[in-house]
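From the thread on structure requests for the teaching lab: each student submitted one protein with a one-line request. Submission from student K.M.:

"Model Tyr recombinase domain-containing protein from Phormidesmis priestleyi ULC007, tokens only."
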Amino acid sequence: MRLPNIQLDRTNDRVGHSATAYFSDFGLPFHLYDLRHRWAIRTLEYGLDIGLAAKQMGHSREVHERIYHRWINATIHQRAYELILSRDDRPRPPVRQETAKKEEGQDR
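Reply posted by the TA:
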């Protein structure tokens, strides 16, 4: 596939319209802007820092949260929770002394 020859010395809105016109000739079953929305939602699903995702998309953190956080559902929350729990560098809960002593005795 050959990339379109798009003049980048224009506003993002104008570039977006040109790209949409170019890709519409291919009969895509979705709008080009849908890819932008889906990428933003996936950054939430995979735990990318919100500030970084917003900056990459060219808007503020507040705009990012207002537009995309409505898509956070129970599945996304669960995935984020499991991702955090699987990290080796996550904070650990405090261990009570009696529990620690019992566990030491079981190792012997």
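TA comment: The chain is about 60% helix and 0% strand. The mean pLDDT is 83.
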